[in-house]
Amino acid sequence: MINGSPRGAAGNTEILIRAFLEGAAKADDTVDTVYLKDKKIEHCTGCFTCWIKTPGICMHKDDMPAILERLRKADIIVFGSPLYIYNVTGLMKDFTDRLLPMAQPFIEIKDGVCTHPGRYSDFKPKAAVLISNSGFPEQSHFSGLKEVFRLGFPGAQTIFCAGGALLKVPELANSLVWYLDAVRKAAKEIVEDGKIQADTQEVLDRPLVKDALAYAERANQHWRNMGLSPVDA
């Protein structure tokens, strides 16, 4: 479990992650969690040292090599990140960029698309999962992120929570149990079968709110209560 939220265990993404871990635990899975905010991970410089001079080893001396060793032992890899400008956070982007040592520089074609073959024959996780939440109430805001992971992690399972900001509203906790139950069910299915079943995915793709206008009005009132007011652009 890779948590890429700058807020770590205090963020909305953590609520989804905890529900996922609860579901995975019911399937007798063992979880190793990494909070990227607590790690030193340098930017990839594109120098290709990990391909040419020291194959499989990056030139940066930081926390990433130890994380990669843990990653190689994983049967299932779960990426958790809030949606930042229609993508993952900078922390998560740096992390995924630094996965380059796990690939080879050669190019092969799979299903008509060019890709790099993996470096380690024993690294064959059963599933990759992306968990994300957005402050906007529509699923369409995840479309760019979905495409990025479709290309980078073919077959990745997704849990995209539209309107995830509501997960931390105490008075809404009881009305949102259905969603977190679906996350738990999805985790159990992934551990057991390597994928989320269609009926479970259909529930996960439902927004937490149906009335976008009411949602926007509530959010705007929150900011007004903090003394802010909109300006004409």
What does this structure look like?
The structure is a single chain. The protein is an alpha/beta fold. The protein has a single domain, classed as Flavodoxin domain (Rossmann fold, 3-Layer(aba) Sandwich), CATH 3.40.50.360. The chain is built from 7 helices and 7 strands; from the N terminus they run βαβαβαβββαβααα. It has a 5-stranded parallel beta sheet with strand order 2-1-3-6-7, with helices on one face. The chain has a two-stranded antiparallel sheet with strand order 4-5. A hairpin with a 2-residue loop joins strand 4 and strand 5. Helix 5 packs antiparallel against helix 6. The longest helix has 17 residues, at 177-193. The chain is globular, with a radius of gyration of 19 Å. The mean pLDDT is 92.
